[in-house]
Design brief:
alpha+beta; 4-stranded antiparallel sheet; 3-stranded antiparallel sheet; 35% strand
Length: 185
């Protein structure tokens, strides 16, 4: 099972000359220029959501990738936003060059084609649903979305989460998209 987001993400990094994003997950404080840039990105995302008649959006983990750059190999985390439209779940990422503009659609899955959504530890064991949000740090987990492609073959996408609680929240939202009455049949 290949992750269908990788080709689009690889193309993005190739397009932007393999330059890692200027903001990493460890950056916590944004200066005034970055605040303005974040506002521009937010406005562009809002326009995209309006134009595509989004029903709802939610954070859907990260895709982590080691990539070569001019300064050597770096690990890049790309944050993924899931967007539920009337017929599909679309996966968006912000432009990897950090500039404002329209978010990049890296893939989509027809809502009717989604077969299952599950959470696993990195070693492949199933993650039970936590009874409450934990206060202590948790091990990373993987959310796996399975669906049938146009040929009927089973496909899957894996997304990394730093919290089982957050992964299960995404599972609930994806399953709601699968079973909602406005789902295309």
């Amino acid at each position: 099972m290949d992750d269908f987001l990788w080709p689009a993400l690889d193309a993005l990094f190739e397009y932007f000359e393999r330059t890692p994003p200027p903001v990493t997950s460890s950056d916590r404080l944004l200066d005034a220029e970055r605040w303005a840039q974040a506002a521009e990105v937010g406005a562009a995302r809002t326009r995209w959501l309006d134009e595509h008649h989004a029903e709802r959006t939610f954070s859907c983990g990260v895709v982590r990738r080691e990539t070569s750059t001019d300064v050597g190999a770096v690990v890049v985390e790309v944050f993924v936003t899931a967007v539920v439209t009337d017929t599909s779940v679309v996966f968006l990422v912000d432009r990897p060059d950090g500039n404002g503009g329209v978010p990049v659609e890296v893939g989509s899955i027809d809502r009717a084609a989604i077969a299952d959504v599950e959470v696993f530890y990195l070693d492949g064991r199933a993650v039970p649903r936590p009874p409450a949000e934990p206060l202590d740090p948790e091990p990373e987990v993987v959310l796996v979305i399975s669906w049938r492609d146009a040929a009927g073959a089973l496909a899957a996408q894996r997304l990394l989460f730093g919290s089982a609680w957050e992964a299960w929240r995404a599972v609930d939202r994806l399953r709601a998209a699968m079973s909602s009455p406005d789902r295309s049949t």
